[in-house]
Amino acid sequence: MSINSVEAFDTTVQKTNEWLRDISNELGDDNRRHPNLALRGTLHAVRDFLPIEESAHLSAQLPMLVRGIYFEGWNPTNVPEKDRSRESFLSRTEQALERALWKEDYQIDTEKAARTVLRVLSDRISAGEVEQVRHVLPEPVRELWPEPVATR
Q1: Does a structural domain hold residue 2?
Q2: Residue 21 falls within a domain, yes or no?
Q3: Cβ–Cβ contacts within 10 Å for residue 123, how many?
Q4: 1 in a domain, yes or no?
Q5: CATH at residue 89
Q6: Range of 103's domain?
Q7: Segment 55-93, tens digit of pLDDT
Q8: Terminal Cα distance for the chain, rounded
Q9: What predicted TM-score, i.e. pTM, was given to this entire model?
Q10: How many domains does the chain have?
Q11: Is 37:69 a contact under the CB 8 Å cutoff?
């Protein structure tokens, strides 16, 4: 480690890159920007569907950089989202993808992106936290999120 680096920053960049690599591999997409868009959109959808306390618990298990993405633009006075349908959840992910890809000819399947990010979350955070988050989500949204590894 160089004298100018800060270990916490180096670690969070490394962990975030691992998350993005996993998402990229599962999406079959080598454009490094696309997994970031999928992660951002899906995290914002999850965040907006959770009560504040559960959102805080989940964020504590995210790498620092991913936690910053998670809370970006958050307004806690509007959570949890009133329309808690699967369509509303996927719409939030899709809007993030569409806004970011509007100049590209490339399309990302919204449900596949959401399922991919949720699977990576299941692999990277504790099984207990995955179960707690899944428990407070409505059943149609919960179906998008695989069970934690420990309970599979």
Answers
A1: no
A2: yes
A3: 13
A4: no
A5: 1.10.490.110
A6: 7-151
A7: 999 999 999 999 999 999 999 998 898 999 999 999 998
A8: 39
A9: 0.89
A10: 1
A11: no
